[in-house]
Design brief:
Chain A: Belongs to the binding-protein-dependent transport system permease family. The structure holds 3 protein chains of 3 kinds. By secondary structure, chain A is mainly alpha-helical. Chain A contains 13 helices and no strands. In chain B, the strands form 6 sheets. In chain B, strands 11, 12, 13, 16 and 17 form a 5-stranded antiparallel beta sheet that branches. In chain B, strands 1-10-9-8 form a 4-stranded mixed beta sheet, with helices on one face. In chain B, strands 4-5-7-6 form a 4-stranded antiparallel beta sheet, covered by helices on one side. Chain B has 19 helices and 19 strands. Chain B has helices at 2-15, 27-31, 55-64, 112-123, 141-144, 192-196, 198-203, 249-258, 275-279, 301-304, 308-317, 321-327, 345-348, 363-372, 392-407, 421-429, 448-456, 470-481, 485-502, and strands at 35-40, 69-71, 78-80, 83-88, 93-98, 159-163, 166-170, 211-217, 221-226, 240-245, 263-264, 283-295, 333-335, 381-386, 413-418, 437-442, 505-517, 521-522, 538-539. In chain B, 31% of the residues lie in helices and 20% in strands. The longest helix of chain B has 18 residues, at 485-502. Chain C contains 11 helices and no strands. The chains are: A mainly alpha, B alpha+beta, C mainly alpha. Chains in contact: A-B, A-C, B-C. Chains A and B meet through helix 3, helix 5, helix 7, helix 8 and helix 11 of A and helix 8, helix 16 and strand 16 of B.
């Protein structure tokens, strides 16, 4: 087990190099960022040339990349165009986004699994159908609308919460944004749980447990749920990336200055250091999340072993 | 009032355990009465006077700095601010005399050196300031800012400090309205602190304006407080301004409705329909120095061969500006009838209807003109703009629909959305367009010259369509030499009539400044750059 | 309600296997057995009819909509229902009904093709990774990790802006490229669990080959989560197309799609909710049809249900 974990952690090195290179090339392919710094005005050629030189943009791609990597190993992740260090941006954006993701994941787990278990046990009944309708609504109504409507109702009309999140972004303010962020994933978690439950409810071990006269609660949590969770946690493992890096719409609606926003800004302004810095950390988060998911497999299903 | 605040806090304290969120909104009001909470966007560049060329950074500069001149928010006229007088006899050599007793908020005196050092800094190539071309007509600019290579001098020879209150400026050539340009923020003075510890200054900028920076958290907020020591005529009428960064103006608008914000200076287009019911008369919609046009690539033969001026005019006549500004923009844009802006006023050179029939919707005539001119190149026209900001996609669709409906030949007009402004900018600055493209222009100072010369004169710095016309260039040069302002304006307008004939760019509409505010503040107005005049706002 | 009770009920209700004597003479394979089950499932029939209807509309929108989706009159912008225009007008003054009907083609093509592509590629790669493990798993999973990291917007701007084709295929290809890693993780997870089952181990002990084990024993037991994720992804892919279009790199005008119309309508939700209702409703029905189909297929593959 220990060796397995070490091996997985070592795999981070090639992934780190691969993803920084890939993202660097992609931002490079977006084009020259300098002209846009001058707004609607034409760039002054001399100034533009000087800026390009200082940013290493006048060098060929491979030299730019090596220069960038060289700086990273000295702990310098570069600077965004507004003069902020990328490390500063990382330090301010990641904690907020982590909290937001955590809220969303908890909601997905609690609400999604509950709904999934209920509808899986009551297949074809009213509860099941209502959950299906909710799923359809969540899929077809864009986050922008659900987020905006919820914000308007809770924040303006009933004025029970603050409609936007303050820069400190405490958990209490992240409840609504976290819910909005979790909505689409909730559909997945609910349907996955429902299917697994429906499948496992007919498994032999469950009949045995029922026959033994075990309490219903214990059957569901210890036997049924445990064996049904693998697809669900696999999904959540893959979803963490989407939640952290792709929360642009939610972050915009609630004015959260998180990872999604910074990546989006970096892309719009063709700022390689920002995008590469943020995405690289994101990739490392996936690696850890997926490692955790793989280890959880073994916990949930003792037959699975890692050497 | 005080009691009420305390009571509120008590209630909050009790309810913290239940719903900690509910009290967040009220805290700013409670801590300092008289503070205006206003929406802000993250400035593109670090906040330095000569490096800021967009509204968000400009907002801060307007709070922190006062230059030699300042444009009256109502009339747009350049009035002396720090300058006591600016004299010239030959329209080329100017003597600037400063008012006495003015200081920066850190106690330093505002002297002739504050200006000369700041301008030399702004012009020098090593400092990579975006606005350095603003100093280009000062003698010696080419030495500190050569077209390529390193600077040959540290300072511009045209700037000479005479004494603490006086300096002289020598321009490269005659420019009668040069003093009028000095209200632009790039010409602000800088304290020595700026040069001594630049990083510290950027973290907490120090200026000579009515406000000082209390705290600045990059990317999220800036708290500015009224400066008691300010001696100018436009002393702050409120306790301070909190600028809060919003990544989406829709969100700012929501916060305004929820009472978490006092002022939103950019009401989103999609909310304009609700403004009346949400805000009543706490809404401003007034002309700004911004015009939106569609520019033709005159460097592309297909758009520039003889007869094509008829096609270009025809396209202009196929656009139903009235309907688009009404339906898409709820009249926060005004159909354009010349190439300047109503914010210039008649005296400044705005002339309603100068464009004439060519800017009036007339589908019949449009069809006829396009046929006479030989038809659209390849029977098609493709309209290009970036779509990452603003509501460009909406008006592009509307313009194309209008053209298609007018011409009645099916979908001959299509939109070509470009993903990022950077990409779009590279395409137009590299002269790679094959069809008409969007161009927005916000004037730097309320002068008609600024709407014409940079955009349409041969070699003009933002002449993205490469329009070249000898007669036009000649008239612009004549106008610049003219010492009588009225005569100069007449010459500029004469040049503008050539644009109406040739139609190198279709004027679409003038963009208004639009702002909404809460019932806690009053006396809100926007200047012609659509920036709120913060110092005049009163907080109840 | 007692679990045992409901369990007993479902057991009773569950359709029996093929009635003895009426089935074909020789024992059917798992897959043909599933097909037999499927044909008898009313849910399958309903979803099949719905999908047939959607396909017909996609191919011949003119059958039920006589207007032109590109004919827009700005003067009527955001007006509500009126005679001849039951769904009202959108922000550009185009007829919402006509656009909803004409939007089916692009949206369903993108949704179905991208889902099929991502599901096939993802389950193939993920399944193999889960089944064989070792370096193959490591390589595939790490490649997937890197793909996860590519922001959709960046990928779209870089990869799609170089394409000038006005068909839906670049968009489909791009969605497959970004979509497969998720399905491959799901498939990998289910295969890892499924291959632990006693009967798989037994088959291995009896000397079954890898191919046979994968196809006959592992795949049918691992396919359910993939189907679930794919049917929901179908809906999100249709919406993703709108995101790409808004970046200027998705479907090009004059293509009409639900995604674009939904995104447009979302902006005006306070003033003209009718603009959202119809295209979003159409998307819901499509997703519903495919979720039902997925459920039916899954049930048919599960021998325990018989």
């Amino acid at each position: 087990m220990g060796r397995y974990v070490i091996r997985r952690l070592l795999q981070m090195i090639p992934v780190f190099i691969g993803s920084t290179f890939l993202i660097f090339v992609m931002v490079y392919a977006l084009g020259d960022p300098v002209a846009a710094l001058f707004g609607d005005k034409a760039p002054d050629p001399a100034t533009a040339a000087r800026i390009r030189k200082e940013l290493y943009l006048d060098q060929p791609l491979w030299k730019q990349y090596l220069h960038y990597m060289g700086q990273i190993f000295q702990g310098d992740f570069g600077t965004a165009f507004n003069g902020q260090k990328v490390t500063e941006l990382l330090a301010s954006a990641y904690p907020v986004t982590l909290r937001l993701t955590l809220v969303a994941v908890v909601i997905e787990l609690v609400v999604g699994i509950t709904l999934g278990v209920v509808s899986g046990l009551r297949r074809g009944r009213t509860v099941d159908t209502s959950v299906l309708v909710l799923t359809l609504v969540v899929i077809s109504v864009p986050t922008f609308v659900s987020g905006y409507v919820l914000q308007f109702l809770f924040g303006v009309k009933w004025a029970v919460i603050r409609p936007t999140v303050s820069p400190e972004a405490p958990f209490s303010e992240l409840l609504l944004p976290g819910t909005v962020l979790a909505l689409v994933s909730l559909a997945y978690v609910t349907r996955l749980t429902r299917t697994s439950i429906a499948e496992n409810v007919r498994a032999d071990y469950l009949r045995t447990a029922v026959a033994k006269g075990l309490p219903r609660r214990r059957i569901i949590t210890r036997h049924l749920l445990r064996n049904s969770l693998i697809p669900v946690i696999t999904f959540i493992g893959t979803d963490i990336g989407a939640l952290m890096g792709g929360a642009i719409v939610t972050e915009k609606i609630f004015n959260i200055h998180g990872v999604g926003y910074q990546i989006y800004q970096g892309i719009l302004r063709n700022n390689a250091p920002t995008v590469v810095g943020f995405v690289t950390i994101l990739v490392i988060v996936f690696l850890l999340a997926n490692l955790l998911v793989d280890l959880l497999y073994a916990v949930l299903d003792p037959r699975i072993r890692y050497a | 009032m005080r009691g009420a605040t305390h009571a509120k806090w008590a209630v909050c304290a009790v309810s913290v355990a239940l719903a900690a969120t509910a009290c967040g909104g009220g805290s700013t009001v409670a801590e300092g009465a008289g503070i205006v909470r206003s929406s802000w966007g993250d400035p593109q560049n670090p906040i330095e006077p000569a490096n800021t060329n967009e509204v968000q950074g400009g907002k801060v500069l307007d709070l922190l700095f006062r230059g030699l001149k300042r444009y009256d928010p109502k009339t747009g006229e350049a009035e002396n601010m720090v300058a006591e007088k600016i004299d010239t006899t030959d329209q080329q050599n100017f003597t600037v005399t400063l008012k006495t007793g003015l200081t920066f908020s850190n106690g330093e005196k505002v002297t002739a050196k504050s200006f000369v050092d700041a301008w030399n800094y702004g012009a020098h190539i090593d400092n990579k300031q975006n606005n350095s071309p603003f100093f280009a007509n000062i003698q010696g600019y080419d030495d500190v800012h050569p077209a390529s290579g390193n600077a040959k001098a540290k300072t511009m020879s045209g700037l000479v400090v005479k004494d603490e209150r006086t300096f002289t400026v020598k321009l490269k050539e005659k420019f009668s309205t040069w003093p009028e340009t000095l209200g632009y923020q790039a010409f602000s003075p800088l304290p020595q602190a700026f040069f001594k510890d630049h990083d510290a200054w950027l973290k907490k900028p120090v200026g000579n304006g009515p406000y000082t920076v209390e705290s600045y958290t990059k990317g999220s907020s800036m708290k500015l407080r009224a400066w008691d020591g300010y001696k100018g005529p436009d002393k702050a009428q409120n306790g301070g301004v909190d600028l809060v960064v919003y990544t989406d103006n829709n969100t700012a608008y929501t916060d305004l409705m929820a009472g978490n914000l006092d002022l939103v200076d950019d009401v989103p287009a999609k909310q304009l329909k609700n403004v009346k019911s949400d805000l009543g008369d706490r809404y401003i919609n007034q002309p700004a120095l911004i015009i939106q046009t569609v520019v033709f690539p005159m460097y592309d033969k297909r758009w520039n061969k003889p007869g094509m001026e008829k096609v270009r005019k025809g396209l202009s006549m196929a656009i139903n500006r009235d309907e688009i500004t009404k339906q898409i923009y709820q009249e926060t844009r005004t159909p354009a009838t010349d190439w300047t802006s109503p914010a210039l006023h008649d005296k400044g050179g705005y002339e309603e209807g100068l464009c004439g029939d060519a800017c009036t919707y007339n589908p019949e005539q449009a069809k006829k003109l396009i046929d006479e001119g030989g038809g659209l190149p390849g029977g098609k026209v493709q309209l290009t703009s970036n779509v990452d900001t603003g509501s460009h996609r909406d008006w592009m669709d509307a313009v194309c629909n209008s053209i298609n409906n007018a011409l009645g030949k099916g979908a001959v007009c299509t939109v070509n959305p470009v993903g990022t402004f950077a990409d779009f900018k590279n395409q137009i600055a590299g002269f790679k367009m094959t069809g008409p493209f969007r161009s927005g222009w916000q004037a730097d100072y309320p002068l008609i010259q600024n709407f014409l010369q940079p955009l349409y004169a041969t070699g003009g710095s933002s002449n993205y369509g490469k329009f070249e016309n000898k007669e036009f260039d000649g008239l612009i040069a004549e106008a610049n030499r003219e010492s009588d302002p009225a005569a100069a304006v007449a010459k500029f307008q004469e040049a503008e009539k050539i644009l109406a004939e040739q139609m190198p760019a279709i004027p679409l509409w003038y963009q208004n400044g639009s702002a909404g505010y809460s019932d806690l503040i009053s006396d809100v107005q926007l200047n012609q750059f659509s920036v709120p005049v913060y110092d005049q706002i009163k907080v109840s | 309600m007692d679990l045992a009770m409901s369990e007993a009920e479902t057991l009773e209700k569950a359709p029996g296997g093929p009635p003895l004597g009426t089935g074909p003479g020789k024992p059917r394979s798992l897959w043909s057995d599933a097909w037999y089950q499927l044909r008898r499932n009313p849910i399958f029939l309903v979803s099949g009819l719905l999908i047939l209807f959607l396909v017909v509309i996609s191919l011949w929108p003119g059958l039920i909509a006589t207007g032109n989706p590109l004919e827009c009159h700005l003067a009527k912008a955001q007006e509500g229902s009126q005679p001849g225009h039951p769904f009202g007008y959108d922000s550009q003054g185009c007829d919402v009904y006509t656009r909803t009907v004409y939007g089916a083609r692009a949206s369903i093509t993108v949704g179905v093709c991208a889902t099929l592509g991502a599901a096939l590629l993802g389950s193939l790669l993920g399944g193999l990774a889960g089944f064989f493990g070792g370096w193959w798993d490591a390589l595939l999973s790490r490649v997937a990790d890197i793909f996860f990291g590519i922001p959709v917007i960046l990928g779209g701007l870089v990869l799609l802006s170089v394409v000038t084709s006005s068909t839906v295929w670049p968009v489909v290809g791009f969605i497959v490229l970004l979509g497969w890693p998720q399905i491959s993780r799901i498939a990998r997870g289910s295969v890892i669990t499924a291959k632990q089952n006693d009967y798989v181990q037994a088959a291995r002990a009896l000397g079954a080959g890898n191919g046979r084990m994968l196809l006959r024993h592992v795949a049918p037991n691992a396919v359910a989560p993939v189907i679930v994720v794919a049917t929901i992804a179908l809906g999100t892919y249709i919406a993703l197309e709108a995101t790409l279009s808004f970046l200027g790199v998705g479907l090009r005008p004059p293509t009409v799609s639900w995604g674009i119309d939904i995104a447009n309508a979302a902006q005006s939700i306070r003033n003209a909710p009718h603009m959202l209702l119809w295209p979003a409703g159409a998307l819901s029905i499509t997703v519903l049809a495919f979720i039902m189909l997925g459920d039916a297929v899954r049930d048919a593959l599960d021998p325990k249900l018989r």
